[in-house]
Design brief:
Helices cover 39% and strands 20% of the residues. With 363 residues, the chain is an alpha/beta fold. The chain folds into 2 domains: 1-105 and 264-363, Isopropylmalate Dehydrogenase, CATH 3.40.718; 129-258, Isopropylmalate Dehydrogenase, CATH 3.40.718.10. The strands form 2 sheets. The chain has a 10-stranded mixed beta sheet, sandwiched between helices. Strands 6-7 form a two-stranded antiparallel sheet. The chain is globular and about 55 Å long. Bound molecules: 1,4-dihydronicotinamide adenine dinucleotide (NAI) and magnesium ion.
Length: 363
């Protein structure tokens, strides 16, 4: 049976890097024995320009029905003044909300060819391959009350509330344990149980989930601040890190920068398994934005976008060998010295978006 992909290129460099993913998909269909069917929709500013919404109901329905959504990037100065409800980001937030994408996966991988270029010591990052699993739909970004109160004496009070229920911690830690089994078989859970009640519960529920069917996976607990320190000191001690929305936001950005440019970083967001098919809703996107400063110049690095499709192969389609093949092709292109501008050393010759895509296909 064929697999259904909804491509949402979006704005800025989004369509340019999506073009390279289309070539990769075509390659897997022609030479990799796969049958992906693709449909394409509008999201963000380009959708607003077309019909006044940041994503149409029709495209939302397609996203809900797709086996995976491949998302480029949205936004840009052109849409700075559009009404808040239809701003470009609203399209992405709507997708995350309606698809209930509660698990955000951010790998930090060090490509050998780029280990030398890092600002960190080579032995710290060479061979690095870790995965941060961030809870994406709960915690302090969403908890109520959330408000600014006027205290009337010239003082105001800003309130955000960290809330986690058992089921939210169970399902995110379940995802982390399952992913660990496909990798290094170790999960490190990070919270602040020393000062936060939600941290105490997080620790308890992760421990209980581990007991209920994941005891083959090694589990360790770490306070999130110590975890941040260890990520920079010796990141290779980790395999899968599972943490809440706020800590995960920060720790995944730190981990990402261990290995280099924004143009290299893929991500996946997963929902709960469907009751009937067992398949998870999923959206794959580069970590970076629409890079309006380089849009249209052919300078965009397509690797984050292509590697995001690689994550789709791995996590939505269980095509692990194909995902490995794609990752190897990226590593090979880098080994041969191909560099887009964002990952080039000063004075180094650079290639365009299309040339990098072609090189990866050739590999
Ligand atoms: P950005 O990630 O678009 O760009 C930051 C810097 O990194 C820029 O100098 C850009 O040229 C460079 N860069 C990013 N991706 C690159 C790539 N693939 N190859 C080479 N260089 C790359 O973040 P910025 O500038 O803060 O935001 C630009 C727009 O993107 C804004 O409208 C913002 O709201 C939106 N945005 C959208 C996101 C999404 O769609 N998920 C995420 C982050 C920002
Ligand atoms: Mg962030």
């Amino acid at each position: 049976a064929s697999q259904n992909l909804l491509l949402l290129p979006g704005d800025g460099i989004g369509p340019e890097i999506m073009q390279e993913v289309k070539k990769v998909i075509a390659w897997f269909n022609e030479k990799g024995g796969m049958s992906f069917e693709t449909d394409e929709g509008l999201v963000g500013g380009s959708a607003y320009d077309a019909h006044g919404q940041s994503i149409s109901e029709e495209d939302m329905a397609k996203a809900m029905a797709a086996d995976a959504v491949i998302f480029g990037a949205v936004g840009g100065p052109k849409w700075d003044d559009v009404p808040y409800e239809v701003r470009p980001e609203a399209g992405l937030l709507r997708l995350r909300k309606d698809m209930q994408l509660f698990a955000n996966l951010r790998p930090a991988i060090c490509y050998p060819a780029l280990a030398d270029a890092s600002s960190l010591k080579k032995d710290v990052i060479e061979g690095l391959d870790i995965l941060i699993v961030r809870e994406l739909t709960g915690g302090v970004y969403f908890g109520e009350p959330k408000e600014i109160i006027d205290l009337g004496n010239g003082q105001k009070r800003g309130i955000d509330t960290q809330v986690y229920d058992t089921y939210e911690i169970e399902r995110i830690s379940g995802v982390a344990f399952e992913l660990a089994r496909t990798r290094g078989n170790k999960v490190t859970s990070m919270e602040k149980r020393n000062v936060m009640k939600s941290g105490v519960l997080w620790n308890e529920v992760v421990t209980q989930t581990h007991k209920n069917g994941y005891e083959d996976v090694q589990l360790e607990h770490m306070l999130a601040d110590a975890g941040g320190m260890q990520l920079v000191r010796w990141p290779k001690q980790f395999d899968v890190i599972v943490t809440d929305n706020l800590f995960g936001d920060m720790l995944s950005d730190v981990a990402a920068m261990l290995t280099g440019s924004l143009g290299m970083l893929p991500s996946a967001s997963l929902g709960a398994p469907d009751g009937v098919t067992g398949k998870r809703k999923a959206l794959y996107e580069p970590v970076h934005g629409s890079a309006p400063d380089i849009a249209g110049t052919g300078a965009a690095n397509p690797i984050a976008m292509i590697a995001s499709f690689g994550m789709a192969l791995r996590y939505s389609f269980e095509e692990v060998a194909a995902a490995d093949k794609l990752d190897k092709a990226i590593a090979n292109a880098l080994d041969k010295g191909l560099r887009t501008k964002d990952i080039a050393s000063p004075g180094q010759t650079t290639v365009s978006t299309v040339e990098m895509g072609d090189a990866i296909i050739a590999e």
